[in-house]
Structures are given as structure tokens and as C-alpha cells.
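Below is a typical protein record.
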Amino acid sequence: MGAVLRVTITAVVVGSSAAAMPATAQSTDGGTTTAPQPVQPAATSRTTNGRQVYDAAYFAGYAPASALQMVERVPGFAIESVDSSVRGFGQTAGNVVINGQRPSAKSESLETILARIPASRVARIEVGPGDQFGADYSGKSQVLNLVTTAGGGLAGTVQLAALRDFTGTVRPAGSASALVKRGKSTFNASVTVENGATTEEGTDRLVSVTDGVLQEFRRKVNVQGEPNVSVAGSWAYEDGTNRTAHANGRVFIDRYRLTQRNDVTPLTGAVRDDRLTQRLDYDEYELGGDVTRPLAGGGLKLIGLATRRNRDSRDAEFNRIASDVIGGSTQTLRDTLEETVLRVVWSRAKLGGWTVETGAEGVINRLDSDVELFSFGGDGQPIRIDLPVDQAVVKEVRGEAFVNAGRPLSRTLRIDLGLTQERSRITVTGDAEAERSLSFLKPKVTLDWKPSAKWRAQLTVQRTVAQLQFEDFISGAELSSGQVNGGNVDLVPQRAWEALATVERKILGDGLYKLELGYNRVSLVQDRVPTPEGFDAPGNLGNGRTFILRNRIDAPLGAFGIKGGRLTLYGSYVSTSVKDPYTLRSRPFSGNSLFYGEATFRQDLKKVAWGFTATADTASTNYRLDETDRNYRTIPEMSAFAEWRPDARTSLNLTVDNLTSAKNRRRRTFYEPDRRTREPSLIEYRERSRHVVPTLTFKRSFG
């Protein structure tokens, strides 16, 4: 079996002035504190002001080059994935702050931001409940605060990579970032060039249900490439409590290319040579910043953000016998998405015994989209397919006002209250005309109980309202699967009452056990509904429910005789239910996977480390007009690594992904004329292999 080889070289460069920096560090509120020359800290954690604190020395054994590699080693903590496409700023917070403040960038992931900060510039990492970090994090059981050093000088990272897939193609990639500290200002700039590429092989089998006869067999090879470049810069000014300013900008240029070779053998008729190409040009620009100043015993923070995304997609599918085109289709999509956000927040730590935060946010969003879909007959002439809502402009003006307040009720119990009033006006013009105004009141209450140093429990009850995705208003086709997605201008937001209970207990020293139980009552479930034109589209079903059970164990294994060993186990059980509009029976939400599990073992010794990770999940199914589309894997996916550290600043890492050669599988079950017919007519089985993927990484830090 073929393999993909990736070689990565990473170096961290620190100027001489940083090496002699004074023993100062950013304080937890964003200011600076000055201390005498320190004693070398012990490589252990401690609890301070309700936060678990990990000094930089705690991570020295891992030889980290960036802040990201340090955060990944924090016991019991996982970076929260955030959907940057969510409109507005308040709902994209994640669970990481830097020097007590939320990053002012939105389009970049937390992983990307942390990867630009050299490990040599991290003083410590703190983990505490979300109420300690402002309204955007209230109710989160864990938020990580990365505290940087305050010394001056230059630090930077350089990464070079070469990727070789099993076909022999080699593609280079790399990145570079620099961080300069001058007095109260920190400047950070980065350039990242990636050249991701994969080649996967597989087969499709289309089988008749009534007689089990193979109707069509396809052998496919997908060659995908995604070169992209990202240029980002930021400035941070820290002058003590409530005297900060930040600015950031980013340009992201992405080019996705897919070429599919498809040999088709039908039950009757000639063998076909089908070809599919997809070309996507994706450009994104962002400019944002914030400033905080003292006001009325607290701090007033003003946040501004502007983003623009341009997307140009060109897909083409041609069915050929020999060199003659006998059918196919093409689709072009051009759209522009613009967002402008202005947010103001006032907070005060001590106001009649309460910590208070109040503010407002205004957002203007606009999507201008144009889709053209053509089919080709035997004569090769294009025929325009008129989709519902294939040309439209969607505009939203949204505002919200919020107030949050929290205080201790006793030495061990704390309460946090929140109330948000959201109003929006959405208009659609073009192929369809629609206008609606929406208003929602979203209360929230969190009780946090800490009876001892080892135990902690939290209960959150809140009302949530999902955002409408503008792309759901626009129609489009997926040529690779032959699915058409209708647009629906009548879509309204899903809303829910959510309750989540969390229990944490420290184990085996710095280990952690975490249990989460949740229940959501959902109304107007967003799923898929039929359209009058005979397609299906995003739409609203009736009432539904979600039950959540999540467990995480992060345990050091020294007490069991495994020196430097650590085991992490994670399991997620999420059960959903809603009445299907066709069968009138209860079924899961589209795309929901009932179970996900992950097991990771790592052992760090003086100069070597090794470990493995195994992941598994159950199938997820999308329910459409005339089919169910099920995605799954039959065996767990595994990866393993071995690392050699000849000194504290150098490491060589070999990681091999997909050791089990797990294949992605897809089963599409078709019904005629739709799913009201209980017995299916055809089943399509798809199988794709990604192959074993080894990665070789060299890492070096200086200063």
C-alpha cells in the first residue's frame, strides 16, 4: 500500500535581548507585574485564585517550540473548535484567552494564533472556570489563559515542509513568524504557505434492492490539491488593567483543485469514462481590533471587525464513451460575503458584591450569490437548469444587548446570570423576495460549586438560538454525488432550552476526570424539507430533543510504574430525536453520530517519547427527499509517533497516521418517488482509501 511522506523542519529564533529579559510577566488582567530574579520553578502545577497554574518549566520535558504545543499538553484540556462562519463576534469566543483577553481575530483558529507564539515567550498557563474571563466565556467549565513574558527582544519561528504522496508527487510548504517586544507593545507577523495534497482511490457499487443485481460499478481515483497562503499581522499594547489595545489583519488566499478519473461499467451498455473537475478560488480578508480604557471603576472595551470573502467555484462533469461526450453537467458559483461588526462592553469586578458586564453588538452581513447549472445531452448542447433561488442577495442587520452578573453565594458556591436581547432583520432579493424581523430573549444561569480542592461541579441552563446560514437560502448542486440542494428563503432559526451539568475531580496528582450530562429541548429543528419544485432544501421540522453524555479521563501513570506515561480517554454519546416529515417516525438529526471515542497514550522519558492515538465513531446519516446518505468507518483509525530529543531545544518526531488503513465508507439508499415509499429501490456503496500517512518533523528552538 502507498504512503504519504511529510517532512517538517521547525526552528524558533530568539534575539539576544530576549535571552536577558527581566523576570517580568503579563498579569492575569492584562497588565504587567515585576518580580525579583526568580528561583527556577518546579515542573509541577499549583492552584492560585481558583485557577490551575502550569509554569513554563512544567512543559520543558516536551521541548515545545510554540505555545500551541504547550497548550496541547495541559492535562484535561482540549481546545474548543469554533465555526468562524458564525456571524457576529460574541458567539465565536472558543475557550482560550491570551493575557486575560480574548483574541481580536475571528477568521483564524485558536490553533493558528497559538502556533505563532514562541514557547520561549510563555510565562505560564492558567486554567479556570469561564466566569473569570468575561461574558463571552460565562458558563464554560474550562477556559485557558496563556500568560506571556514581558521581556523585550525578537523571537520567531520557521517551518519548512515537503510532502510526498504514494504516487511520488512532492510538494513543498512552509511558514515563518516573528514576534517583537518593544516596551508595552508587541508586534507579531507571520506568513504560511501550505501545499496540501491527497490522492485517494476507491469504488462505487450501485445495487438493485429487489434482485440484488449489480447495476453499475465504478472505479475512481481522486487527486486533490489545495495550495494556500496566509499573511497575518497583529499589534498588542499592554499598559496595565483596562489599558490595552489590539489590532490584527489577515489575508488568506486558497486554491482547491480536484480531478477525478472514473471508470464506469454499467449492467448494460458501453463502458464509460466519466471525468469530474472542481476548481475553487477562495480569498478572505480581515481587519479588526479593540481598545480598553478605564471607566466608572471598570473598563470599557470597543471592538471593531470587518471581513470580506470572495468565492469562485467552477465544477464540470462529463460522461464519455471513448472520446464522445454523451452527457454531463457544469456549475459555476460566484459569491461575495461581507461582515462588519461593532461591539462595546463595559465590565466592573466589584459592584455591590457582583462582577458585572454589559454591552451591545451591531452586525451588518451581506451575501451576493450567483449560481448557474447546465446539463449536457447526447448532442453536447448545454441546457440551463433553473434552480429555485439561484441568484439572490441576502442581507441581515442584527443587534443585541446583553447584561451578565455573577457573585459568590458562599465560600464554595457561585452564581452567574445572563440576559441577551437579540433583534434582526433579514431581506432576500433576486429570484425570490422575502423579508422578516426576528426577536429573541436569551436568559442564562450558571451555578458553580467547589466543595474542595479536588471536586468541582457546574450546572448551566440557557436558551439558545441557532444562526441561519446565508448559503441555505441559495440553491446549488453537488456534481460528485448528483445531489441538488434547493434554497429556502422561509427558513427560520432553530431554538432550544439547554441544560448541562459538569462534574470534575482531580486524580493521581495532576490528572483529571470530567463528566458532562446534558439535555436540550429543541423547537423548529433545522434539517431538510421538500420544496415545491421537487428538490429538498434546508428547512424546519417540529420539536426535537438531544441527550448528551461525555466523559474524559486524563491520568498520569507514574503511580502504576509507567514513568512519564499518560493516558487520555474520551467518549461522547449524543442521542437526538425528531419526527421525520416523510415516514412520520422518530429519527436522529441529520449528520448526528451517536458515539465518538478517543484513546491516547504518551510516554515521555529523558530523551525519547512515544505514543499512539485511536479514534472510532458510529455512522452519521443525512435524510433527504429520496435518499438516506450514511457515512461511516468499519474499524478504528490509529496513529503512532516516536520522538527523539538530543537536547532540550531539539527534537525529531516521526508520526504515522491511519496505521489501520481505515477506509471511509458511504451508503446511499434511494427511494422512488421519495422516502414515503418504505422499500428502497437502489443502494449505492462507496469506499475510499486515504492510505498510511507518515510525517517526519524536525524541531529546534534557540535563545
Notes: The chain has a mean pLDDT of 86.
